[in-house]
Amino acid sequence: MSSTMYLLVDGGGKAYVKENARSHAEVADEFGLDASVCQKHRFDATNPQALMTFAAEGRLSKDILMGLLALDRRGAFENACAGIEKTYTDECAATKDPCLESGCAVEGEVCLQPLLRAGTDYHKACAAEWIKLFTNPGNRIDAWKN
Fold first, then answer.
1. DSSP codes of every residue in 57-121
2. What is the rounded distance in angstroms from the CA atom of residue 139 to the CA atom of residue 52?
3. Separation of alpha carbons 92 and 107, rounded Å
4. Which burial class, exposed, middle or buried, applies to 20 when counting CB atoms under 10 A from its CB (0-12, 13-18, 19+)?
5. Residue 105 CB: number of other CB atoms within 10 A?
6. DSSP-assigned states of every residue in 43-55
């Protein structure tokens, strides 16, 4: 297994990773991307600090971060992000300025709109929770347990 993780970020800021990819081109092929128009990042799997720093900047989605955690730790991360999502939804509802004229479409549930408005701040908040878990090598997928 390679000790290098290849990651592409499209123009919209979405990050793409393919486990065990050996090049950026392989990641691009997996997701139907044009690698020439994507930001390219490469991480040494023996140095998880670089990945944690990148994640802390809000540059990785919740799904990508979850995929780097051991299966038995993903639930804890999902719950932490659900709490963050609920907070954003509750704060939005408290403004009494719903997205729809008829009111909030998902009362009592999590709404996507405040998460989209939060953008990078939402990703940073989830990354902070992920870092708490990922700091412990026992909570990582095998490729990062070093």
1. TT-S-HHHHHHTB-HHHHHHHHHHHHHHHHHHHHHHHHTT--SSTT--TTTTS--HHHHHHHTHH
2. 14
3. 11
4. exposed
5. 12
6. EETT-HHHHHHHH
Residue 2 to residue 128: CA distance in whole angstroms = 27
Question: Residues 28-85: pLDDT tens digits?
Answer: 999 999 999 999 988 887 788 988 998 999 988 898 899 889 999 999 999 999 999 9
Q: What six digits make up the tokens of 14?
A: 């979405």
Q: At a CB cut-off of 8 Å and minimum separation 6, what does 124 contact?
A: 56, 57, 58
Distance between CA atoms of residues 17 and 24, nearest Å: 9
CB within 8 Å of 135: residues ≥ 6 apart: 52
